[in-house]
Amino acid sequence: MKRTILALGHELLSYRIHEVTPYINWIYFFHAWGFQPRFAAIANIHGCDSCRALWLTTFPEEERTKASEAMQLFKEANRMLDRLDETISIHCIFRLCQANADGDNLLIEGTTFPLLRQQTPQPDGGPFLCLSDFVRPLSSGTPDIVGLFASTISEEAEETYKSDPYKHLLVQTLNDRLAEAATEKMHEYVRKEAWGYAPDESLSIPDLLVEKYQGIRPAVGYPSLPDQSVNFLLDELLGMKQIGITLTEHGAMHPHSSVCGMMLAHPASRYFSVGKIGEDQLDDYARRRGMPIGDMRKFLATTI
PROSITE patterns, alphabetically (predicted)? Predict the structure, then answer.
């Protein structure tokens, strides 16, 4: 890992592929190739021929061909990772910011960061949640901390094997996983050292991948943070260009294999889905975002 301290409290972490490969969640890699989660278990099997053959026998006869395909895909994916390790890197940038909640907004280093609140009654009768609920309110008079982050694959990775459709698709699906894996490793470092709110955390990687740590890391596009336009706010606060991320006019990130969002430490914080919102919240949110309601409607098409 290469660590660089930038201005305004930013930290930049650069990883080689072999450093983040253990943090890959292979379930999502196999899902991208049309395999159900049970086939991703090949990633947990010892690489010797006898172990793989034994794994195949755990499947019904009619599923063994599919399991063999998953085994071959996993083998080819690892060969590709080894091949790219010398040339491809993954970059993360994060910033720990003073922040407070002000209703459904976060006030982050002088920037208003509007958020959405659930409006659909929950099956368990629970409260209507907003991410701001997990940040100390402005009325407390005491600042809290919110972490902001972005991660991306080096741009040359997206051009690799463009003349070979299969290998190019393999690289693309691996790039997505590498960006997420680097984020997982970065978040572990933030919790234990940079922010240090969980210095004694001792979790296995399988435990990390099922989010047994304290706090949450909602990324833009997650059900609790569905508005892609907030990428512009994150860019203002983070300076994503420092790791090579640029935004389209619609807030999409380039390179495609990129992820950004926020880190919250509150012990009670949890993931949730905003779900459908009403016209009243749409109007209010557009006002808080300072955007025309027509534009806001496009960004929130899946929630209206």
Answer: ADOMET_ACTIVATION
